[in-house]
Specification:
Strand order of the largest sheet: 1-4
Structural class: mainly alpha
Mean pLDDT: 92
Low-confidence stretches: none
Strand content: 5-15%
Order of helices and strands: EHHHHEEHHEH
């Protein structure tokens, strides 16, 4: 039900924000894929965190019937890597059906510990 009002934790909301800032152009607005990038909603049904981290940080080239699909390495991009856990949480929620399409309707507030970790990672 895409009309469901669902309150998400801060990490899930942050993952949604980062996904839409960095990933949706290729992977689609709701992680449902496009003609040149896979549906992460489907990929994250079976992909564990270690593989997700490896692909995001190091990139990946897939050859499908002679067509090369290239996921760029984002390991140097702080706007991705400082939030990679959030991205994973958001995408897993989409993959397992815990989160409907679209912007989460309600969110928990960002905690002090989260703010501190974010500032430390971003260098601020």
């Amino acid at each position: 039900n895409t009309d469901a009002v669902k309150k998400v934790d801060w990490m899930t909301y942050s993952g949604w924000r980062r996904y839409h800032a960095e990933c949706h152009v290729c992977h689609g607005p709701n992680a449902e894929g496009s003609s040149f990038a896979p549906a992460l909603k489907e990929s994250l049904k079976t992909m564990d965190y270690a593989k997700f981290l490896q692909v995001v940080a190091s990139g990946q080239i897939r050859d499908v019937a002679g067509t090369k699909y290239i996921m760029p390495a984002l390991g140097d991009n702080k706007n991705v890597m400082c939030y990679v856990d959030d991205l994973y949480v958001y995408l897993r929620a989409r993959a397992v059906g815990d989160l409907p399409r679209g912007r989460p309707a309600k969110k928990a507030e960002k905690t002090a510990a989260y703010k501190e970790a974010e500032a430390s990672c971003m260098g601020g």
